[in-house]
Amino acid sequence: xxxGSPSAGPRAVTTNQEGIYKDLKSAVRKYMRTQYLRxxxxxxxEAFAQAVEFVCKFYGNAGxxxxxxxxxxxxxxxILDSGCGTGESTLNIAKKFPGVPxxxxxxSAARLTKAGGTASSDADQLPPNAFLxxxxxxxxxxxxxxxxxxxxxxxxYHALYYPNxxxxxxxxxxxFHLHPIFPTLLQLGDTIELRTNWEIYAQEFAxxxxxxxxxxxxxxxxxSRVAKTITRExxxxxxxxxxxxxxxxxxxxxxxxxxxxxx
Length: 263
Known about the structure:
This protein is of the alpha/beta class. Helix content is 33%, strand content 16%. The protein has helices at 24-32, 42-61, 88-96, 109-112, 137-149, 182-185, 199-218, 243-250, and strands spanning 76-77, 79-82, 102-106, 130-134, 153-154, 157-161, 191-196, 229-235, 255-261. The strands form two sheets. Strands 4-3-2-6-7-9-8 form a seven-stranded mixed beta sheet. A two-stranded parallel sheet has the order 1-5. 37% of the residues are buried.
């Protein structure tokens, strides 16, 4: 079978990097003490505003009231599905947590147009607690963190399923855990779950979280940034939750996950 043919299945990740990226610790420590200030794209601000409106309407329809007094109101629970692709994972997460709005975020309009109909074989549309937006992830995360800090949102779970691994060593700093956005990412969720088919990515993600954990503890940083547990393991999904996961599972590739919990 020729590599890349439809029946060949997905290729395993190939890389010229041996083991964990050599400058991981210094990169994480550097970005912990700096602030990511890239201007936020207008289309992401618009998409985020739509997500905020969806969340408010969801709880409004459920009988929740909004109190602008931050000292007394309860934040809205919101689940994030970052890099949701066609939205299949968003649909599955929304079914698992029917009482919580699930926001699926992806930068590709082409992938998102497949959502609802072709994203899942057992559903023709997304459930009422699922919402898909086209946005830049890094920008969306920064806006979401502001909602968390002002007690408008509480994120019990954040899914990060099969992000682009950027496997070349020269591309390493494009990985989420080697980017200035990483401290922001770790504040978005009581539980953050990464899934990947590349073991080194899982190793690096867990190690970066551990380095940041050590720094926050030593600096007496507020507990919102501190991971209480960090687990990394190989796993075999009983039911694939994304199209990528299904392809990797059918190709018998080993899958890995990292779960970071602050509770």
